[in-house]
Structures are given as C-alpha cells and as structure tokens.
C-alpha cells in the first residue's frame, strides 16, 4: 500500500491529473457548505476530507471566515466552509460558481431548527433563482444523539417543514431582485416550488458513524457526469464475475463513488463503508512498502510486507497491466502515465461469514474496488475475477480520460 500512508500531494489528484495541471482552481467543482452556528459544518467536512479524527471534533474553533478545502477525487472538488454569519450578498464570486450546496442542520436543537429551516429555504430560493442547476443537500446532523424513535420523528418533521416553507415562501417579495423571472405569475411559482421540493436530498448524518460518508457519497455522485458509464462497467463486472455487489471507493475519504446498484440497500453500503474504514485503519502498518529498483537488472520489487502477504499469506502479483499505456513522451498527459506497473497495489480478502467474502483491490492510487460475493464463487473463480478486473480497470481509465 505504498502510496496510501499519507495524503495525496496537493494538486496530484486522480481527476485533476487526467487533465492539464493548473495552478488556479477553476476546474474544481465548488461545494458551498452552509448552516446555523455550531451545526457541525466544519466537522462534516474535515473528518471526511482531511481525515481529522472524530475525537478532535469538539476542539474545532468557531469558523470566522470562509475556508476553502481542496480535495482530489474522480472529480476535483473545492468545499467552502462558511462562518455562521455568512450572507449571500457578501460572496465575492457569482452564485453560478457553485454546483452544490450542503446545508447542515443540527437535529438535536429542536428549539432552533425551525429558524434554521427558514434560513435554508430563503437561501435555497435565492440560489435556485440565480442558478437553477445548483443541487441541494441537507445534512440532518448529530443524529446519534437522539434515540431511534425520536430521530425518525425529527427527520420526517424536518423534511415536512422544509417542504411547507418552500410552498409558503413569499416569492413576490423577491420580484425586484430577479426581474428576468416573472415571480408574480402563479404558474412560474408552482414550477419553482415543485423543482425545489423534489430536488432537495436529505441525509441523516453523524461524525460518529458511516452515515456522514454515505451522505457525501450522494453529494459527490450528484456531481459525476460520468457516473452512469462507471456504474454500467461495474454492473458488467459484477455479472461476469458472478459477484453480488461491487463498490468503487475513494480511498482517502472512504466515500463510495459508484456502485453497480444491484440489490443495493443503504444498510449494505453502510456495512461495506464500515468494513473499508476498519480495514484502512491499518494502513499505517503498510506505508513503508516501497518499490526497490535492483541496480543489476532494473527489476522492481516490493520492499517490506504487502497487504496481501500480511493478510492472506500470499504473494503479491505485480500489476503488469498498463504497460501499453506508457507513452514515450516525457510530459505525463494522463494520470496512469505516472503509474508504475510494478507498484505493489494493495489487495485483500476477508471471509465475513461462512458463505460471504469481501475482496478489495486498490484500483488506482486513489480508488479501491470492493466486491461482495459468495465464498464458493471466490474460491472457484478468483482467477476469472482478477482477469475481469484488468478490463474493468482499463474501462474506468478510458472513461476518466475523456472527462
Ligand atoms: N453529537 C455530535 N456532535 C457533533 C457532531 N458533529 C459536530 N458536533 C459538535 O458540534 C459542535 C460544533 O461543531 P463544528 O463543526 O465546529 O460546527 P460549525 O457549524 O462549523 O460551527 P461554527 O463554525 O462555529 O458555525 C462541536 O462541539 C462538535 O463537537 C456529531 O455528529 N454529533
Ligand atoms: Mg465551523
């Protein structure tokens, strides 16, 4: 797991390196994170995208000014963490800069969440009128604090109140600010209301469990234009390999980027996410694996223990695919041009129950593939599965190269 022990170098992300490198951040999708004071905005961002341990969450200070957090995944993103007194009018960039807004609402604050919902609805309407393609997510946060019954009740109540407030909003009061939209016309308003109500995605979240990663997974997937193509490749792989489910993970954040969507349930995604984060907790053990070039014959070999050796007691097979991709040019043009085919990628399998096995392959420096399948299929068809994997990997590369 040679490259996983540390954070990827800034600006060396997967998506980013598939296109010309730029010093500015205009190529990043911008995600604006808003919310009431102490709702948990900074915690939602930093525990996932900067891997700050949950125990440090109580010590995040008050956010005083906008902080931009860059993260390189399939799609390079920039998350804007805002102070609670943030006003749209103080934004120094046009609203069209943002692809997505995440509104964090503290679900345990029953006394203030109605005010927070009103604020969300007001912001959402103004953002939507300025940029109708913007996507809205509400993280109903700190959910682990409430009992299960109470949590479900609050969750439903917050969604219901938000929809009601969208319906009841005095749209006419914004008519002078948006002269191009006829906010006096009831039919126009009805269309806006319907769009807004159906567009908000709600997620219950907590920094203490996998729900937060799941919510970010919905946010990131919403911004991936290539998602359907990747999903259909995963589906193809799953059926040709007689597997049950396949998940493509962003390794550093532990966020699912795509799945085959076959018999998938939220519970299953949560279990697989949990598995991956538990497994990656051991990543530091392997960070010293590095490739050693033998001076005599130029052969590369792994130095130290690789994950497969450690977990399964088996040899790591060198990953020889991608040779044909190596171009003569000195200038790397695609991210895989920088990949070393002899790099000891991590791979691991776990028998979860007598009949169920989870297998994991590091797929690129930043992506891991997790496959859930029957143990007997794994034992009988492992060679075929690894063979299919080379095609899946190639397919994903091709999709990413045209993005
Ligand atoms: N129980 C619980 N507390 C949380 C969770 N996430 C954050 N908190 C707590 O909420 C408080 C505020 O968290 P922050 O992330 O600083 O909130 P913020 O919205 O960025 O706050 P400001 O920047 O001051 O507006 C901290 O004391 C955290 O410990 C969670 O999932 N569960
Ligand atoms: Mg903050």
From TrEMBL:
GO molecular function: GTP binding; GTPase activity
Positions with biased composition (Acidic residues): 321-343
GO biological process, alphabetically ordered: cellular response to starvation; negative regulation of autophagy; positive regulation of TORC1 signaling
Keyword terms, alphabetized: GTP-binding, Nucleotide-binding
Pfam families assigned: Gtr1_RagA
Location of region: Disordered: 1-26, 316-348
Record's GO cellular component terms: fungal-type vacuole membrane; Gtr1-Gtr2 GTPase complex; nucleus
UniProt keyword Cell inner membrane, yes or no: no
InterPro entries: Gtr1_RagA, P-loop_NTPase
Entry-linked Gene3D superfamilies: 3.30.450.190, P-loop containing nucleotide triphosphate hydrolases
Subunit note: Component of the GSE complex.
Family the entry assigns: Belongs to the GTR/RAG GTP-binding protein family.
Chain's role: GTPase involved in activation of the TORC1 signaling pathway, which promotes growth and represses autophagy in nutrient-rich conditions.
Name the UniProt record assigns to this protein: GTP-binding protein
Organism: Kwoniella bestiolae CBS 10118
Upper classification of the organism: Eukaryota, Fungi, Dikarya, Basidiomycota, Agaricomycotina
């Amino acid at each position: 797991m040679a490259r996983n022990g540390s954070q990827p170098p800034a600006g060396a992300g997967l998506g980013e390196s598939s296109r010309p490198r730029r010093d500015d951040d205009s190529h990043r999708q911008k995600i604006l994170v808003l919310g009431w004071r102490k709702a948990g905005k900074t915690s939602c961002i930093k525990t996932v995208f900067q891997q700050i341990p949950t125990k440090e969450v109580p010590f995040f200070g008050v956010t005083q000014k906008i902080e931009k957090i860059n993260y390189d995944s399939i799609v390079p993103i920039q998350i804007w963490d805002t102070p609670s007194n943030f006003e749209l009018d103080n934004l120094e960039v046009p609203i069209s800069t943002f692809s997505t807004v995440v509104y964090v609402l503290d679900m345990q604050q029953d006394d203030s969440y109605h005010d927070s919902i009103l604020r969300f609805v007001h912001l959402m309407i103004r953002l939507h009128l300025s940029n109708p393609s913007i996507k809205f997510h509400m993280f109903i946060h700190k959910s682990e604090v409430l009992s299960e019954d109470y949590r479900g009740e609050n969750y439903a109540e917050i969604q219901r109140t938000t929809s009601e407030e969208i319906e009841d909003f005095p749209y006419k009061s914004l008519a002078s600010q948006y002269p191009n939209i006829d906010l006096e016309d009831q039919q126009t308003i009805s269309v806006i209301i319907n769009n807004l109500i159906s567009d908000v995605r709600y997620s219950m979240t907590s920094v203490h469990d996998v729900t937060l990663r799941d919510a970010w997974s919905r946010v990131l997937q919403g911004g991936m234009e290539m998602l359907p193509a990747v999903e259909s490749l995963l589906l193809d792989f799953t059926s040709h390999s007689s597997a049950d489910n396949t998940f493509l993970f962003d390794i550093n954040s532990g966020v699912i980027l795509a799945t085959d969507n076959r018999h998938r349930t939220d519970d299953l995604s949560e279990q697989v996410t949990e598995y991956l984060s538990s497994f990656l907790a051991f990543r530091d053990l392997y960070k010293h694996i590095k490739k050693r070039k033998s001076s005599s014959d130029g052969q590369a070999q792994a130095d130290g223990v690789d994950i497969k050796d450690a977990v399964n007691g088996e040899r790591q097979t060198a990953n020889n695919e991608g040779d044909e991709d190596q171009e003569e040019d000195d200038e790397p043009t695609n991210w895989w041009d920088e990949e070393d085919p002899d790099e000891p990628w991590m791979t691991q399998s776990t028998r979860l129950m007598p009949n169920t096995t989870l297998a994991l392959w590091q797929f690129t420096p930043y992506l891991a593939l997790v496959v859930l399948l029957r143990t007997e299929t794994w034992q009988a068809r492992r060679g075929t599965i690894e063979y299919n994997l080379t095609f899946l990997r190639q397919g994903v590369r091709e999709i990413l190269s045209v993005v």
